[in-house]
Specification:
- Strand 2, helix 7 and strand 3 form a beta-alpha-beta unit.
- Helix 9 runs antiparallel to helix 10.
- This protein is an alpha/beta fold and 623 residues long.
- The strands form three sheets. It has a seven-stranded mixed beta sheet with strand order 7-6-8-9-11-10-15, with helices on both faces.
- It contains 25 helices and 17 strands.
Length: 623
């Protein structure tokens, strides 16, 4: 990276300051913002490539629009780092995603410039429409802008918002489609191919560039340009423009890294008081060459050397739970030709790429469409396949009705693999997999497995394949315990059966998931001061091993349950119900996440705050 001297960066503390620059000074300011993002993310990891690609968009919007009076909604915060830096959070950006620091996503409580929070995709159009309609009701003259990526616009909610917004031609809303042909992995689906075709029609774009030159200099010709442009699109593209079919005026394509052209374009569009969509072409990771080696990796690369782009990798002997899933899925597919893999735009994140490399025809990346992924899996299962649908726990929340109506109600053998179960760390409240045990536990027909290590995850997947019912397996992000699992023979696990991990006589600890190691260390420390704790790996949150629970409760003075999820409606409360049903009064302490949203920080910091790290477990053993 060739460093430049900061000329404007530290003098711009708000969009008002930005607007004092001349349009010719904006490219230099964009370069400085990009360099600052690289420098900060090198030592304080975050979502790098997406934000590098959206620098000019952020600068142009804040330069043209009167933010925060005008509403600006970012679809997912991956692309909003420049927005944060421009809006008075430049110095605080050093604390991005750290405990007590800035959130990695737009957050209403953080800044008046964050008009709507978004950690999940495809929400921006609907939210923007709501704000635009509110402005009409309140007789305000403010503008509303939504920025959405080409991956996110394929989500069902985005289509619902576009369809609704385009039905009222008096709604003053601008949707900026930030098209870089990527989400985290390469964008998928027919809409992506449509956008590529729309963007690469050479005849159309040559003529449209001339129209844009006219448009940017003489706003009075807007209507004429629009009509001529529509004729070109209908003639050269041989069908109606999708967005204009939905009631939007379509403008594009525009170079998303030419900030001066973006400014002129936005100024022209600002006077059009109806639904409109601006198609902007950007490059993910723009301006930093190392990102182009592997855009999926540089979406969130961790620490790296900003000069060379060399990534600083942490060393762990234990396998990532994601890799255990990916390799096991391939091993199962080799054994059973019915096995197929489904993911909504997360093949590299969940390690389904391992199977994709060998059996691409049996893996399906459906794009950012979690509800569709689950119902698609249900259709596969109904036709005799055995789908393993891998969705991050926090995103599975978006498919809740699909799980109930399409999978559980019909008792179809779909295996739901919930990656990133529990606290995930720096991504914060929008991404913690805190609710899955609770929201799955109340659904009939479904099994909820909570493997404690790599070996159990592998065998839970094998067990799910042997069963003929809906089966959910939830496991955390990152390295496991270091248990041997590769090339180990498969063993079916008896559904609903726990196992004793440690003998004890005073306190019984029921662990759901991968906190067994922490519980064992806490129990060893408690033993030193005279408190003996037995530990049970419960393995399943549903069905529970009720006979073991009753037996243990009649033997021990106290029970402690531990789960990396919400207490309300969780496994610990289910244990209490078993005791109540059997008229057993043994005291139970439930450790987990209280009835509140947990902010961002390291997993260790957050577990300590929630009281179920090793120290918290120890304190509850020796009470």
């Amino acid at each position: 990276m060739t460093k430049i001297e900061y000329k404007y960066l530290y003098s711009i503390n708000s969009p008002a300051d930005l607007r004092k620059l001349s349009i010719d000074e904006l490219p230099r300011y964009c370069d400085e913002v990009r360099q600052y993002i690289i420098e900060q993310c090198a030592v304080n990891p975050g979502h790098l490539a997406s934000s590098l690609g959206a620098v000019e968009i952020a600068v142009a919007i804040h330069y043209v629009y009167d933010t925060p009076t005008d509403n600006l909604i970012w679809d997912v915060g991956h692309q909003a780092y420049a927005h944060k830096i421009i809006t008075g959070r430049r110095d605080a950006f050093r604390t991005n995603r750290r405990l007590g620091g800035l959130s990695g996503f737009p957050r209403m409580a953080e800044s008046e410039y964050d008009t709507f929070g978004a950690g999940h995709s495809s929400v921006s159009v609907s939210a923007a429409l709501g704000m635009a309609q509110a402005a009409k009701l309140q007789q305000k003259s403010c503008k509303t802008v939504a920025v959405i990526g080409d991956g996110s616009i394929g989500g069902g909610l985005a289509f619902e918002g576009l369809n609704n917004a385009g039905s009222d031609r008096t709604t003053d809303i601008l949707v900026i489609l930030n098209d870089n042909n990527m989400s985290i992995d390469k964008s998928q689906g027919a809409l992506n191919h449509y956008l590529l075709r729309l963007s690469t029609s050479s005849k159309y774009n040559r003529l449209k560039q001339g129209l844009w030159s006219l448009l940017s200099r003489t706003p009075r010709t807007l209507d004429l340009c629009r009509k001529v442009g529509n004729g070109i699109k209908h003639g050269l593209l041989q069908n109606s423009n999708l967005f204009e079919s939905l009631g939007f005026r379509y403008f594009g394509r525009v170079d998303g890294h030419n900030v001066k052209r973006l400014v002129r374009t936005l100024r022209a569009l600002k006077s059009i008081n109806s639904p409109k969509l601006l198609h902007v072409i950007t490059e993910k990771g723009h301006g930093y060459a190392p990102t182009q080696r592997d855009l999926s990796v540089w979406h969130a690369p961790g620490c790296f050397n900003p000069e060379t782009g060399e990534r600083i990798k942490s060393v762990s002997k234990a396998s990532r739970m994601q890799d255990v899933f990916g390799q096991t899925l391939l091993d199962l597919a080799r054994l059973d030709k019915r096995v197929v893999g489904i993911t909504p735009a997360m093949p590299s994140g969940c390690s389904m790429t391992i199977m994709m490399n060998e059996m691409p025809e049996r893996c399906f990346d459906v794009g950012i469409a979690e509800g569709h992924a689950v119902t698609f899996s249900a259709g596969l299962a109904a036709a005799g396949e055995r789908p393993f649908c891998n969705i991050y726990s926090t995103f599975m929340q978006r498919a809740y009705d699909n799980i109930i109506h399409d999978v559980a109600l019909q008792n179809l053998p779909v295996t739901l693999c919930l990656d990133r179960g529990g606290l995930v760390g720096e991504d914060g409240a929008t991404h913690h997999g805190a609710f899955d045990i609770a929201y799955l536990g109340c659904i009939p027909n479904i099994i909820v497995a909570t493997p404690s290590d790599e070996w159990e995850l592998r065998n839970m997947m094998f067990t799910a394949l042997q069963s003929d019912v809906p089966f959910a397996i939830r496991y955390p992000r990152g390295a496991g315990r270091g248990t041997e699992w590769r090339d180990m023979p498969f063993e079916a696990i008896e559904i609903g059966r726990a196992r004793k991990v440690r003998e004890g006589k005073d306190v019984a600890i029921f662990v759901f998931g991968t906190l067994c190691a922490d519980a064992e260390q806490a129990a060893e420390q408690a033993e030193v001061i005279g408190v003996s704790a037995a530990i049970y790996d419960m393995r399943f949150a549903k069905p529970l091993d009720e006979s073991l629970i009753v037996e243990v409760a009649r033997k021990f003075k106290r029970i402690v349950t531990i789960e990396d999820g919400v207490i309300r409606g969780g496994a610990g409360e289910a244990v209490i119900k078993v005791l109540n049903d059997n008229n057993i009064t043994t005291p139970v302490v439930t450790l987990g996440i209280d009835d509140k949203f947990i902010e961002h920080g390291t997993v260790a910091e957050l577990r300590h705050l929630c009281g179920y790290d090793k120290e918290g477990i120890l304190n509850n053993i020796i009470q």
